Amino acid sequence: MRILLVVASLTIAWPWLSINSLAQQSTPEAAAGPQPQAEASANAIDGKKMFTSTCGFCHQDGGRHAGRGPKLSKSDRSDEFMIERIKKGKVGAMPAFGAVFNDAQIGALMAYIRGLDD
Questions:
Q1: How far apart are CA 87 and CA 33, in angstroms?
Q2: DSSP string, 72-111
Q3: Looking at the whole model, is its pTM more than 0.70?
C-alpha cells in the first residue's frame, strides 16, 4: 500500500519536478542571479486586446455602448477617476484589477479607452 502511495505521488509530482528542474538549470545568466524585468511602456502593450479579453464582457462593443458596465467612449470622467476605478473596482458592480494589471497595462487600457469613437 505504501509503495502504491509513493508511485501515485511521484506520478502527480513528476511533471512539475521536471519543469521546475529545467527552469533551474544553471546558465551563465542564471548564475549571476535573477535579472529585474523592465516594465513595458503603455505604447508597447496592446490596450485593445487587453480590453477585449478582460473588459469587453461588461463594456459592450469595445466600450462604445453600455452593457453590464457603462459606455466608456467619450466619457466625461477624469483619467484619475477611471484609473482608480480600474484599480479598486466598485463593490457589486466592477471587480478590482489593481493586483492584475501594472501601471503600464492600465495606461494602455486608458489610451485605448480615450481613443474610442462612437
A1: 32
A2: -TT--S-HHHHHHHHHH-BTTTB---TTTS-HHHHHHHHH
A3: no
Q: How far apart are CA 110 and CA 54, in angstroms?
A: 13
**Residue 47 falls within a domain, yes or no?**
yes
Work out the mean pLDDT of the chain and round it to a whole number.
Answer: 77
Dump pLDDT digits (tens) for 45-66.
899 999 999 999 999 999 999 9
Cα–Cα distance, 20 to 24 (Å, whole number): 6
Closest CA to 58 of 46, 50, 70: 70
Can you tell me which residue has the cell 549571476?
A: 32
User: Which CATH number do you get for residue 50?
Assistant: 1.10.760.10
Sign of CA dihedral 48, 53, 58, 62: positive
